[in-house]
Amino acid sequence: MTEQSGPKDLVRFAQLAEGTGFSFAVSSDHYSPWLAAQGHAPYAWSVLGGAVAQATSEMELMTYVTCPTMRYHPAVVAQKAATMQLLSDGRFTLGLGAGESPNEHVIGGGWPGVDTRQAMLAEAIEIIRALPTGDLVTHRGDYFEVDSARIWDLPDGGVPIAVAAGGPKAVATFGPLADHLVATEPDADLVSAWNGLADRPKIGAGARAIGQLPISWDPSSTEDAVARAHEQFRWFGGGWAVNADLPTTAGFDGATKFITPKDVADSIPCGPDLDAVVEAVRPFWEAGFTDIALVQIGGDTTDRFLQEAAAPLLEKLRAAAPGA
User: Fold this and answer.
1) Which parts of the chain register pLDDT below 50?
2) Catalytic site residue from 3, 30, 123, 230
3) Is 30 one of the catalytic residues?
4) Annotated catalytic residue: which of 3, 18, 100, 104?
5) In this structure, which of 40, 129, 291, 311 has its CB flanked by the most CB atoms within 10 Å?
6) Exposure letters 109-135 (e unless 16+ CB within 10 A, then b)
7) Where are the domains of the chain?
């Protein structure tokens, strides 16, 4: 999570994660942290392509997720993704979403409503799909223009695209444009909606459903784990309808001031109990998800988590969900 750690730490965490046995790593792509207490927001593409892709050799890599509509023009995202795929030797998946105000308003272009954001994303994906052919692409759309653009360094097989969808309607819109599904809630209806799409691979049979779960592991103190999660991760409490529209860390601080440590502890597994993490992950594989990204809350605790807890946690997870 780029909001919790500086770029050098993120690279070290990726190396430790691969050495521990993780097979898949995702990176947020944000201009700002959610809360000032998190304290970081390095440029995800430099971290991934310039360092992590070179510091690892087998672990798959993914943006979770990039907004290709405002801070980045979709033609530039297509170029970055192609280069990233080459640098990683084919290990990269481009995760895309409609974005959030704290990361996109910084360019001074305002912040459109959700219907417009989704229409922009759909058009952006069409452009990103068209460019990796090596042909000249010209596009005149409702939101974007591309004038005789060509990507010169192309990976074999292109770049798989995963798209974030918050409901069956979004799956119907973006599923036909993407290869994989991204969602932060273990919603079986999303998987069912995807599997109902015509002419698309099913989840688990060519397509993936990739979820995310924050955890606050602490080797000895549940109280410390809850306090850390409350300080750094209570931003989730407003839900994505709120999170997408608040522009600053001060806004998130104000919007979440009534969220209590108990509220956080009820939503996030906190403390030393690894079995509690397994049970928190269980709804994802039961809903049909194929992958889960675990976010250890607190950048200063990530080294210890990876060195002490990650290996036994992976063993427990893989034993509990052998088919996932």
Assistant:
1) none
2) 30
3) yes
4) 100
5) 291
6) eebbeeeebbbbbbbbbebbbbbbeee
7) 7-216+273-320
